[in-house]
Amino acid sequence: MSTPQRTDLEASLQELECHFTWDFKKDEIKDLDNISEKLLDRVKFFHSRYHSTYFNILAFISHLEGQNETALEFLRKAEHVLRDEKPFLEKHLLVTYGNYAWVYYHIGNLSEVNTYLGKVEDICRSIPRSSRYSANLPIVYGEKAWTLLKLGARYYPSSKESFQKALHGDPDNLSLNSGYAVVLYRLEGFRRRKVKTESSEAVKQLRKVLRLEPNNSEAMVFLALKLQWYRKEESRKLVENALRVSPDVPQVTRYVAKYFRAEGDIDKSLEILKKAVELAPRSSFLHHQIGLCYKQELAKMKINEQQVPLDEKMAKMAECIHYFKKSVEIKPSNLHAKVNLAEAYGENRQLEEAEKIYTDVLEDPFLGVSDKQYTLNNYALFLLFKKKNEPSAICHFKAAYEIQLRTSSRVQAGKKLKQIAKQRLKTNTGDSEAYEIFSFVYMQDGQKKKAMEYSLKAKQFSSFNAEDLSALCDEKLNI
Description:
- This protein has helices spanning 3-14, 32-45, 51-64, 68-84, 94-107, 110-125, 138-150, 156-169, 174-190, 201-212, 217-227, 232-245, 250-262, 266-279, 284-303, 310-330, 335-347, 351-362, 369-385, 390-402, 408-427, 432-444, 448-461, 466-477.
- It has 24 helices and no strands.
């Protein structure tokens, strides 16, 4: 094929609506292997209506990993599932055919590229207001939305938007409503301040899913977790029903276990989680949840420390570290598992291992703002209580507090800064840095008059000024 013809072919491929044209970048997608394993687990345990979507994503991931023949195998599986659907319509194959064309293009089989471009063109010709190689259909928006949801948290806002577009054209579609509920649940979960039930988009959507599909156990358990502290009786019934409907589906039982852990029933939670991890041994989430159970048990032991034998406490600590470490090994991007592992190392006096985790996380160029705030605050706590390095802890608390997100991490950072300042002034009423800390907190809160009052006091007692303090923090934070 001549260069001009190849250029025309590439232009045609770019007109397709499929995974290869949705602007996903390999270096922005974390833990490809882990995503693949989770999708294969979902194929094993979830309704076949989702399988073609999962197979298309698996095909794209296989291509990203340089395995184009494997990608073709997954596309054949996707096509087979779609053709078995009742009712089957050719337009359901638009995304799959687009992916076929791209994979064959990368293999170098240009004859097959043209074949699949022709198939897409034939389908689009029968759809009103479509272009030559694409059509704005709910099923296309839905495939894009599910893919965005499964490829990682950075894509969740775009996933929400795509689900909304899809549902606009097909408001009662089970798959679309289920996916939309999941992404709303995830997005609300990122808000470190709890969303009230009555104002929760996720709660409203989860209820809609259960009206459309009363036996959707995943929706049951998500709704139970949203209602847990507000409507106890309803949430408990939802959990019981989820267990009844899906007693052996790890993607459901893991959240049931999370529910019982929050209720303080650690034994019940561990029983469910250990059964689930046998079914899905490569689940980072399950290992993390087991680690959290042991962490909670350790916290109880700490309250009654004199009554707990040391060897029993050490055994729990070893279990805790083991499961957090396994969770991180399976999914290196699991931030909460990493921070929990660092905390466990800190409790076990493995300070170097803990500090390395914190510094590695904070050096990640893809670390989100909320995650950065969370990590800075936890690192500051480690520095304050485990390393007894108050100056460095102050700098990291400040860095967390400077991030203007209303979260529990920010609240805790501000509280700790004030506690440190008050304690220092009890010891020395002329402690300039204590006044500077108060000035900083009030300035961040927009209380400029109070901030200036404390700043003047800081300068009155200080042999060096606020700029020097700021420079010191910059050095400690390595900004």
